[in-house]
Amino acid sequence: MSEFENGDIVVLKSGGPNMTIREKTPRGEYICRWDKDGELKVADFREHELEKATTPAKVENEPKTLDTFPAPEGQNASFQQRVTS
To answer: Which among 30, 37, 36, 34 is positioned nearest to 6, based on CA atoms?
Structure first.
């Protein structure tokens, strides 16, 4: 049984960015994807080179605030318009 499943977030034991497991190859290597400076990178690694990530991936351009405004006139009171700044 393999240690990782598709979608797991991993990191190289030697360090580096968080990566997502895409799939396991027939040779037993894991195809991983990660973002580096806005460019998608893909490589395969052996299981003994990887470990599950302990910190969540950094989200680029995450909204800093979320303001909630009253529903526009004529809309149901449960409707709320949300915008980010």
So the answer is: 30
